[in-house]
Amino acid sequence: MQRLFFGLSVDPVVGQSLIRAARRALGAELSEALYGEEVLHLTLCFLGSFPRDRVKSLVQSARDEFVGLWAPELLLGGEGDAFPDRGTPRTLHTAVEEVGDATGRLGTIRNRTMQVAMSHGWRASQAERARPFRPHVTLARLSGRPDSPIPEDSGAAAFADLDDFWDLGAERRWLPVDITLYESLGRSEDGERYRQLAAWPLAVRPG
């Protein structure tokens, strides 16, 4: 089994800008929890554990289904936030907003990835079906696992002092260029690890 998800890779220049702003806001101690800019992404559909022998078929279906999808115009990075909430943060992220004359493209892309996943046996949980889609880019994980308590001796007291993180400065414009199928490889000493298995280009208007 492989842990897979569809996502949009953050532009490297935009990612570097976001991480620099977050590092300034968090200080030296908490900056160690930041992801590298090369792994920043917006998750579209998390498939979870997926049979390895069906990945090739999934990739082939995605190739056909994603043809002709237009890239959405996105803004991110003006404000930081936390999951599950700012009082007990486990991950830090920034929201993503779709802008421009042709809004709705991001939702179309997400729906298409879900259709591809469902055609290969994936089913959204009841919680996922009830939860509205709030696009975001995770920048840091403050605990080893989303469902694990923050250790008392980990400097958790500093987590409450995140006022500077809630303001990440000017918003950054981002035009995704492709949809990516990722494999999540877990966390190591160097941070979260992902592997790109395949990517499909999005249509971009010239200029």
Automatic annotation (TrEMBL):
<comment type="function">
    <text>Hydrolyzes RNA 2',3'-cyclic phosphodiester to an RNA 2'-phosphomonoester.</text>
</comment>
<feature type="active site" description="Proton donor">
    <location>
        <position position="41"/>
    </location>
</feature>
<keyword id="KW-0378">Hydrolase</keyword>
<feature type="short sequence motif" description="HXTX 2">
    <location>
        <begin position="136"/>
        <end position="139"/>
    </location>
</feature>
<dbReference type="InterPro" id="IPR009097">
    <property type="entry name" value="Cyclic_Pdiesterase"/>
</dbReference>
<dbReference type="GO" id="GO:0016874">
    <property type="term" value="F:ligase activity"/>
</dbReference>
<feature type="short sequence motif" description="HXTX 1">
    <location>
        <begin position="41"/>
        <end position="44"/>
    </location>
</feature>
<dbReference type="GO" id="GO:0004113">
    <property type="term" value="F:2',3'-cyclic-nucleotide 3'-phosphodiesterase activity"/>
</dbReference>
<keyword id="KW-0436">Ligase</keyword>
<protein>
    <recommendedName>
        <fullName>RNA 2',3'-cyclic phosphodiesterase</fullName>
        <ecNumber>3.1.4.58</ecNumber>
    </recommendedName>
</protein>
<comment type="similarity">
    <text>Belongs to the 2H phosphoesterase superfamily. ThpR family.</text>
</comment>
<feature type="active site" description="Proton acceptor">
    <location>
        <position position="136"/>
    </location>
</feature>
<dbReference type="InterPro" id="IPR004175">
    <property type="entry name" value="RNA_CPDase"/>
</dbReference>
<dbReference type="GO" id="GO:0008664">
    <property type="term" value="F:RNA 2',3'-cyclic 3'-phosphodiesterase activity"/>
</dbReference>
